[in-house]
Amino acid sequence: MKSVRALLQFTTILPLGKPADFDRFAQHSWLYPLAGYVTGAVAALPGLLAWYFGYTGTLVTAALTLALVILITGANHFDGLLDLGDGLMAHGSREKRITAMTDRTTGAGALALGITIVLITFAGLASLPPLWIAAAVLCGEVFGKMVMGLFSALGKPFHEGIQSYIYEHSKRRFAVYTCILALPLLLFPEKIIVAAGFLAAVLVFLVLWSVARRCFGGVNGDVTGAGNEIARAAVAVVSALLFSVCA
Length: 247
Fold this sequence. Notes:
Pfam families: CobS (PF02654). Helix content is 76%, strand content 0%. It has 247 residues and is mainly α. The longest helix has 26 residues, at 191-216. The termini are far apart. The relative contact order is 0.16.
């Protein structure tokens, strides 16, 4: 339980009392998807309430869902997305890209990538009925945290920091464990959407991992956090596309 509490204190703003020993989570980083079940369940509330009361305004429901998921995570992973945007948009050597990504300023690259991912996520969620919005954000959060777990196990860091600390305490087999933790989502009736979301998240991991190695020489906490945000967007879009086919 101490490992789970440390995980939730790291990934959410939930009031969980005295800070737990971060080492307990670092040694069990494959637990990341458990945080996704928690944040996803909280973010699913607007969709569930809209469905229960018969409210059909998907634009408002999607906006509230997206706002709530960013709030419950303390915008921590979103901050990583912004930093990644600056690093990707920087011109010049690998060192210049790393400097742009790790400094404290927010540049045009950060705004461009942040706005793009938010719009894509919102469009995907808003294309779904309320109950599906709830399901999509839950899947997006679990699979997004799964991507973070994959980076923790396989994403070799390029400098010292949170990512390197977690990576040093991880094992490669944790990549399998973190994927297994996401499998209970297959209990959902629409298994094809869960399976497609899983594949989309894995694809996000592979592409982002390749880009990070080419541009930065490895992974850091910003890349890991960005993986969560991009995977959530991918799951929202895949859900919208499949819903349009199945409806």
